[in-house]
Amino acid sequence: MRFTHRWYVRYSLALAIVVGAVLARAALVPVMGLNVPYVTIYPAIMIVAVVLGAGPGVFAAVVGLWLAERYFMRPGTGIDWNLSLAIRSAILLGASLYLGWIGHRLRAARARAEAEAAVARAAEAALRRQVELIDPARAEIIVREMQRVVRERGSAVVPPSEPVAQELRRLPTVAGAAVAATGLLVLAGWSLGIDGLTRILPGAASMKVNTALCLLVAGGALALRERRVWRLAGAAAVGAIGALSLAEYVTVTGFGIDELMFHDPGDAQTIPGRMAQITAVCFMLTSLSLLLAGARTRAALWTQQAASVAVGILGLMAALGYAYDVRQLYGPAGFSSMALPTAAAFVALASGLLFARSDGLTEVLMAPGPGGQLVRRLLPAAIFLPLVLGWLHEAGERIGLFGPSVGACLFALAMMVALAALVWWTAAILNRADAARRETEIQLRNQAELMDHAREALIVRDLDGAIRFWNHGAAALYGWPAAEALGQRIHVLLRTSGLPPDYEVRLVQAGHWEGEMIHTTRDGRRVTVETRKTALRAADGHMLVLESNRDVTERKQAEQDLRRVNENLDQFAYVASHDLQEPLRTLSSFSQLIAKRYQGRLDQDADEFIGFILDAAARMQRLITDLLEYSRAGQKHVARVDVDCDRVVRHVIRSMTAALESAGGMVTHDALPTVRAYESGIAQLFQNLIGNALKFRGAAAPRVRVSARQADGEWIFAVSDNGIGIDPQYHQRIFAVFQRLHPRDKYEGSGVGLSICKRIVENLGGRIWVDSAPDRGATFCFTVPGAAENPQPGGTESVKRNEHPPDRDPADRR
To answer: Which of 158, 467, 582, 745 shows the smallest number of beta carbons within 10 Å?
Structure first.
């Protein structure tokens, strides 16, 4: 909670909790007397340390210690400082510090887990985007190629570990946490007076308070072994308590640590509150193992492993004593008994301490190869199978099922059958794994050969630029074979240019980078390559970069040529609009002047010739205008905006009022949508199609209808008329430039109008077609892709001079 970050609030809460615990203990005086005041104070100090932190925990320990000594231990006489009180104070303060640190680590671990979860989600999203950018088949080939590099070149991504071996690496943390939880649970049993938490079997030895405290400290130190200071501090604390307890037995002197926190009624065979001698020895060995867990020398390694094995053997021996009901194993004559939960905790501690290091005795167990797999499968059976069968043998004899001789035979037979089955099962698993490995190697080899001959240049390098892998595609593109390229600096070899200065930083941060760069081949030719770089982690921890380069020099040259063609086309449009039209206007003007001045004054042939000149000039003017429109229709750099087709069609109809009045026609339209396009192109499109409908009309007055519908994410527009129609064999031809189906003296035009329509539609990413038949009208359809707004409810707008409707609805003509 946020308010606990304020120090004065945390210390005030600590004081309130301790005072409340003291008051609760005071209320229990009639029942419990003045002895053992820490029954309520110690849990309060633990809660303060874990929840509020180490500082408030120490503060609570000091206050609680003073109140307990002042009002319960020696009421009215003050505090008498002696060795017992000093040890009690040190243990209480140390416990509060340790528990405070545990609470801090728990909160930090939770924060780290949340942060790592956020990073994992971000990494997953980034990886998803990265995979979407790469073709799936190509990505799979690249991954398999990197696996080939691991196998053949010795540098690549870290291979995934076997699940069992991975779990063994987590065993110390899990075992430490379990042991610490056991100690904490037993402390809770002592604090709450629950006898079942201090001993598992009724009448058996109980786990003492100091034993539980040492297990809590030792388990925490093992779980947090990477923190050297805390590991050493925990080892020292456990060793000190174990040594003091053993010294109490040797010197027959009590140091006041046995019942420091809780009163133990004890029994006739044990000293109240004092751990067993063998338990103290195990804690001293545990302390030694924790101290040497991070040592690097060979002597320290084997000493640490020997101490861990000794702890495990002593704990396992005590556990077997309980299992086989042999008291000499967990409590020899003249010695106190080790509790069953203590024995189990020592076995777990020993396992965690052994696997805290990946060398020594556990090196074979944690190896990822077949030997490690074999040991991991056989060792548990070798340990637990005799235990289980031996217990069954002993139980059978105890209840009289069979005698010693028969029991020994049955035990031997069961061992043989079980071990034979285990060996057969393990061999079968190893054979299947080996067969799968061989099959995988064959697949990887085949795919690697395919990848090695890929057309793309695949290069693996480190961050210093040293080339680790160079496929045949790279050799073909750049000219250097792999034998000459490997080991060289890629930027020096290829004289790289065109990269942004911070691309490598972005590559490491994002995990990938893509763009273009310029390389120089072996023969001095400069090539432009499209590259995608992916950061990978090598087995030794170093960063590698996988480059996938594709030669795009020809494409870049084609783009430049296309730009030049477009520039020439624009220049042509300028020439056509100015240089060609200027003399044409002069010719037309002087021809009109001659016709005006000399009409009728020359012979009839001269008048006819002048008419030919005027007609040709007018047709030439229309042709140039249409060519300009056709050129402009192909320009793709025009910005697209939201175009209200309903408004555009109304504007086109109003601009064609004179033509509609002359033809006696009528144009209607449905509610039309808003699309992403450029308005001039849409207006030109509707104007040409409606103009054609008015031009190629039949005997009836022209009727034109404009409609639209949405299908498959695009708008389909239709312009229908009741004109003369078009033979199906010419449905494709009419969209070609300068194509005419009728003589010029019957229908005017240059044959460019529908070509302009087609170019506009294709520039928008759509398509155009016609549905028509002779004397049945025509329906021109075109599409505009992309999501669009729904059309607003609209009506019909028309300009008409002939009230007679057409013979049939043009939308129905096909």
So the answer is: 745
